[in-house]
Each structure stands twice: as structure tokens, then as C-alpha cells.
Design goal:
The structure is a single chain. The chain is an alpha+beta fold and about 100 residues long. About 30% of the residues lie in helices and about 30% in strands. The protein has two helices and four strands. It has a four-stranded antiparallel beta sheet with strand order 2-3-1-4, covered by helices on one side. Helix 1 packs antiparallel against helix 2. The longest helix is centred in the C-terminal third of the chain and has 17 residues. The radius of gyration is 13 Å and the shape is globular.
Length: about 100
């Protein structure tokens, strides 16, 4: 099993859900509105007057066979709209209950 943590501009939310559904990733936890700043490009997501946009995040656990496809689709979405901001991190899950 693999865990994918996705942090993204809230404008991406519906697209992220579509990607997860396309890969039959039924279970996920949406952590709601989060604030942050990317390390490479894009603008901060602080929800302030100066930086009004906000971010969201999702964490999901998927079968190993699905992980690469999900990550590839997320990468394509990020490249399609690079200024919005999207980061995804893939971890190996050692145990779940």
C-alpha cells in the first residue's frame, strides 16, 4: 500500500476528486482549508488580503498498482496549471488496521 498526500490550490479540488475516482481510490481524508507556500513556484496561499487564495489537502491510501497512475495524473494537472500550485508526496505504508 502507498499513501499519497496532496496539497493543492482549492481551485483544483474537483479535478483531484476526479483523478482519485478514475483510479478507483474510494477512501481519502480531505483535511479542508490549509495555508502554505510552495517551495518552487506559485504564490502563497494564506487567505489574507495580500494573498487571498487558500489551499486544501487530501491524504489517501491506495494499492501499489494504482499509485504511479495517480501520481502521473496529478503531475499532468500541475503542469496544466502550474501557477495554481499542487504538490503530491508518495509514502510506503508499512501497516494498516
Amino acid at each position: 500500500m502507498k499513501s499519497i498526500f496532496i496539497a493543492y490550490d482549492q481551485a483544483h479540488h474537483d479535478h483531484i476528486i476526479e483523478i482519485l475516482e478514475r483510479h478507483s481510490c474510494r477512501g481519502f481524508t480531505c483535511l479542508g482549508i490549509v495555508q502554505g507556500r510552495g517551495s518552487h513556484r506559485g504564490e502563497p496561499h494564506y487567505g489574507t488580503h495580500a494573498w487571498p487564495s487558500l489551499a486544501q489537502s487530501i491524504i489517501t491510501v491506495v494499492p501499489d498498482a494504482s499509485a504511479e497512475g495517480v501520481m502521473a495524473d496529478l503531475h499532468a494537472l500541475d503542469e496544466e496549471k502550474p501557477r495554481l500550485g499542487l504538490r503530491a508526496f508518495l509514502w510506503t505504508i508499512e501497516q494498516s488496521i
